[in-house]
Amino acid sequence: MRTWVLALLLSLLAFSAVAETAPTAMAPAQDAHSLKEKLKALTARSTHAHSDNLIFDLPVTYNKKVSKWIAYYQGNGNKWFRNWLQRSYKYMPFIQQELKNSGLPLDLAYMVMIESGFAPNATSHADAVGPWQFIEPTGARYGLEKNWWLDERRDLKKSTGAAIRYLKDLYAEFGSWYLVAASYNMGESGLRRQIKKFGTKDYWTLIKLSALPPETQEYVPKILAAMLISKAPNLYGFRDLEKMDPLEYEVVLVPGGTDLDHVADFLGVTRKSLKDLNAELFLGYIPRQVEKHYIRVPKGAGRMVSNYVYSKNQKVAIE
Questions:
Q1: Strand, helix or coil for residue 12
Q2: Closest CA to 296 of 247, 257, 256
Q3: What is the 8-class DSSP label of residue 292?
């Protein structure tokens, strides 16, 4: 059964996406339609499955490397990947809408799943930070501010905007989404040298030539594995997922001295949830010497927070 389902899925992928490998003969349109309907019926068995999301807008290749990561996420990495899937319900719609608004493939959002598991405070051994794992120089190049109290690499909206600008620049140079991902992982200068040295712009050929670092050789297969599982999670054994609510918030301008813990206590929400919503404020507050700053609050709480911080500020001024 599992082999049959995989065969169906791969047949659908051959019809839906243009792989960055040798051309593959397409099935007749009526057969592809039938396959798609069967897959939708299968994924519909789980109310939490992404059953309406079987379209791929990145090229899809299925090979031993991709298969290896699918098996890993089903096995030893099951707990991590399940958490990522559950978080994806919260963050993926927001990221994909930003990508759509910018005319980029929506499936680039799976880079965030691999980079950070959607964790706003994720930090790598190379000091890359935030959902998109920007190192400080690249973040600064694309407009992300960092100082002693603020790190916009942790801000989902701002870091996504910076990532979009970066991805566009990479695609303009390399012309391949696989190479865009590779350069995002290893740095565009390093990839540029390897392309020139080996005379090819094919990601899989560069792997065969051992032209890419080991981590970069696995990076695109990880993304492809995440895409395949996430589109139809119950087919890969990820059932009964806890469906998080999509990210929604309001933006409020507050004065310096505003403490996120105090605002969370006032609203009756967890301190962690409000800090995650404002992860760029890694100290948890806005310094008093800062005149004002925008923060995010749960949807519907904007006016309450405005009144609260204004009255609190007035009280401090009187005292």
A1: helix
A2: 247
A3: E
**Residue 84 has which token pair?**
């990522």
* Catalytic residue check, 115: yes
Neighbours of 314 (CB within 10 A): 10
Q: Do the beta carbons of residue 162 and residue 141 sit within 8 Å?
A: no
Per the listing, tokens 């990947």 go with: 81
- What distance in Å separates the CA atoms of residue 59 and residue 160, rounded to the nearest whole number? 21
Could you identify the residue written with the tokens 């499936």? 107
Residue 116: which of 72, 74, 163 has the closest Cα?
163
Q: What are phi and psi of 252, to 5 degrees?
A: -130, 135
Specify whether the backbone of 25 is left (phi greater than 0), alpha (psi in -120 to 50) or beta: beta
Q: Residues 149, 281: contact at Cβ < 8 Å?
A: yes
Contacts of 66 (CB under 8 A, 6+ apart): 221, 224, 225, 228
Strands 249-255 vs 292-298: parallel, antiparallel or unpaired: antiparallel
> Residue 222 carries which side chain, given as an amino acid letter?
K
The C-alpha atoms of residue 44 and residue 50 are separated, in whole angstroms, by: 8
- Which has more confidence, 26 or 252? 252
Residues, the chain? 319
Contact 88, 113 (CB under 8 A): yes
Handedness of CA 90, 93, 98, 99 (dihedral sign): positive
Chain segment 58-117, per-residue pLDDT in tens: 999 999 999 999 999 999 999 999 999 999 999 999 999 999 999 999 999 999 999 999
Neighbours of 41 (CB within 10 A): 10
Residue 63 has which token pair? Answer: 């090979």
Number of neighbouring beta carbons within 10 Å of residue 137 = 8
**pTM score:** 0.83
Catalytic residue among 98, 115, 152, 280: 115
Return d(Cα 131, Cα 115) in angstroms, integer. 7
